[in-house]
Structures are given as structure tokens and as C-alpha cells.
Amino acid sequence: NFVASYNWTLPFARFFGPHRYSEGWQITGISRFNTGFPFSFRSGGDIALTNIGLDYPNQIAPIKKLNPHAAGHNFFNTSAFASDLSCGYEDCGVTGTTKQYFFHGPGAINTDAGVEKATKINERMQLNLRVEMFNVFNHPNFTSPVGDANQGQFGQVTNTAPARVGQISGKFIF
Q1: Are 24 and 130 in contact (CB under 8 A)?
Q2: What are residue 134's phi and psi, to 5 degrees?
Q3: Helix (H, G, I), strand (E, B), or coil: what is residue 12?
Q4: Residue 75 contacts residue 64 (beta carbons within 8 Å)
Q5: Burial class of residue 70 (count of CB atoms within 10 Å of its CB; 0-12, 13-18, 19+)
Q6: What is the DSSP string of 86-125?
Q7: How would you write the pLDDT of the chain (174 residues) with one tens digit per residue?
Q8: How many CB atoms lie within 10 A of CB 75?
Q9: Which one, of 120, 76, 115, 73, lies nearest residue 98 by Cα?
Q10: What gap in Å lies between CA 63 and CA 13, rounded to an integer?
Q11: For residue 137, which phi and psi values (nearest 5 degrees)?
Q12: Are 110 and 3 in contact (CB under 8 A)?
């Protein structure tokens, strides 16, 4: 996880001279890059016969990450898990071979930015106007894939974080 925040006072007054229109401009932002949150695989039901829901699928091959755009929304190869999830003679009472939280979901890249103008009206009054954009580059950030092996969407990324959103605000200080 890497987070950087920044605040830059724009030097318009240096180029255009000190004036109400050229002073008080700022650009602010926060950028975040992370590798994804760990999630757990589940097999649903109660094959382990524990009655507490700690059933995991059996992993039969190495897991490979896939591109959700090119692989029909699949984030990993689901063929790495046994397809028979019923309680057979050898499987009853066993929790499964997949470990808890050993796999990470998709990472995220997000930048929030804003432009602010602070205008002094007199010694006691000031007007601040601000325009902000969240996810300013509109980068698609996928949520974690479905980890329940009994669901039809197992291994698929079914949702994204919110797209670009903007807001305008004003503040009168007196």
C-alpha cells in the first residue's frame, strides 16, 4: 500500500502580480496504489461437519491470476479446484486443502484531486471555492472475486469501485 498526498500553492501572483484574482490558488490531491486485499475461498455447505462454516475447496493445481477483461470476468483459473464439492466417503469431515486468506484480490489505483481558490473580501471575510474529483483518471478498480466454490460466479469479478465523481463546494468565512 502506497499513499501520497500533496498540496501545491500555484504561483499566479508571481507571474501576474499580487491581486485578488491571482492569489489563493491551490491544487491538492491524494494518490493510492495497493496490491489488493486478501480474501478467503469457501466451499459452502457443511462438508467438514463442523456446523460453523469453515469449509474450503480442495486445491488440485497452482492458481494463476487472469486478466478479468480477457478471461470472461474470471480473476483466477477455477480449474485449480476440485469440481466435486459433495460429501463423498473420503471428503466428509475434512475442511479442504485451500488455506484461508492466502490469495490477494485485484489491486487498486486511485487519485483524488481538487482545485481551490481562496479570495479575501476584507480583513475578516473570505470566500473559498473548491472543485474536487474522486478517481480523477477514472481507473477501473475491481472488487474481490467471488470466493465461494459452490456459486456459479466462482472466481469472477462482479463489481468495481465507483467511477469518477465530482463535486463543487463553497465556504464563506467571517
Answers
A1: no
A2: -105, 135
A3: helix
A4: no
A5: exposed
A6: S--TTTTT---SPPTT-EE---EEEEEEEEEEEEE-SSS-
A7: 999 999 999 998 888 888 888 889 999 999 999 988 888 888 877 777 777 767 888 888 888 888 766 656 788 888 888 765 556 555 677 777 787 788 888 889 999 999 999 999 998 999 999 999 999 999 988 888 888 887 888 888 888 888 999 999 999 999
A8: 23
A9: 76
A10: 57
A11: -90, 5
A12: no
In sign, the C-alpha dihedral spanning 57, 63, 68, 69 is: negative
Q: Which residue has the cell 483459473?
A: 77
Residues 6+ apart with CB under 8 A from 52: none
* The CA-based dihedral angle spanning residues 74, 76, 80, 84, taken in that order and rounded to the nearest 10 degrees: -40
Spatial CB neighbours of 21, under 8 Å, sequence gap ≥ 6: none
DSSP, collapsed to helix, strand or coil, labels residue 142 as strand
Enumerate the H helices of 22-69 as residue ranges.
none
